What does this fold into?
Amino acid sequence: MDRQLILRYLLNSNRSHTSHQNITDMKHISILGSTGSIGTQALDVIRQFPGKLKVVALSGHTNINLLIEQVREFKPEIVHVSEDKNLEDLKNAIKTSGTKLITGKEELINIATYPKSDMVLSAIVGFAGLIPTIEAIKAGKDIALANKETLVVAGDLVMDLAAKHNVNIIPVDSEHSAIFQCMQGEDYDMVRRIILTASGGPFRTTDLKKLQKVSVKDALNHPNWSMGNKITIDSATMMNKGLEVIEAYHLFKIPPFKIEVIVHPESIVHSLVEFKDRSIKAQLGLPDMRVPIQYALTYPDRAKNTFEEFSFTKYAALHFEQPDIKRFPALDIAFEAIRRGGNTPCIINAANEIAVNAFLKEKIRFMQIPKIVEETMESATPCVNPSINDLLETDIESRKIAEELIK
It folds into this structure.
């Protein structure tokens, strides 16, 4: 979103919001980012439960043909398209649907705060998902959170806001969903440590010299998960896991020294919680994002679906190993960002978005991504107790620094 528009939202403190609604038998869902990887898989989940989950609002980005298909199938009451040029095509394609169509950056907030929705799935990638998620929380909407950058950038502020408005934030990331499920009925004070698993991506065993020359195609070839380009590259560098460490820190109020990362190439154990009595709970399953999405959308219920059944005989052996920091320096950078606190996580997130985009455009090499992030972290202006406005300024400054480093 345009930074001036964001500031306008934040400064408008008299903005009215809908109070938190009681959820009846039918849960009404708004999806921010319906044409992305998480959004399309969420709609696949919703297809399974026509009497329990109903789409009332959608926002899509540039894949206008897919958005048209979604509107025709799910018949939402309101739809936002990010680019004005696509609005006429959408109007012509769904003339008889009765769906209200909106466009423009300001109007995206109307999807996040749509009065008839009970829950908002926040699935817009990157920093752009922050303000719509904040506005949804202010409107009293429960959040199914797939946009990890919301907590990476403004974790303390967002969690405090959720508490103030009595809003549930239910994680969609498979790792955080696993921890969330393991913690049901448990005392958080009894946690000894949480362990986030990481697949290791496509370069878990690649020689360090060869990593200097990997192609975009190589990096997008994830061995286990089907994801969007940005998150797939983040998985390859393990910055994704670093951001998840920061997200877990905020979601579960767990100090950094109690958070560990272990490489698990099969991606069957999605994460673990060890308690003070040394017992360990783990959540297991096939690497299918529809499972944690369903848990978030139907929480606190569990419902039968038609997804593939897990077979223990197909996975008779599971493997675990320590992450190689030389191969994955981004993970160390993320832990350092937590230690420094303040606006440092915002700095590394902004720099990473710029660096990943540059790599996808073949402007930099793969191993330059963490270097640009680290150098930006050392160069950007630190802020100990940042406000939202401070974080917006940090994001702008950090992106400029990273862009200069790329040049």
Summary: The first helix runs from residue 3 to 11. The two ends are 24 Å apart (CA to CA). The chain is about 45% helix and 15% strand.
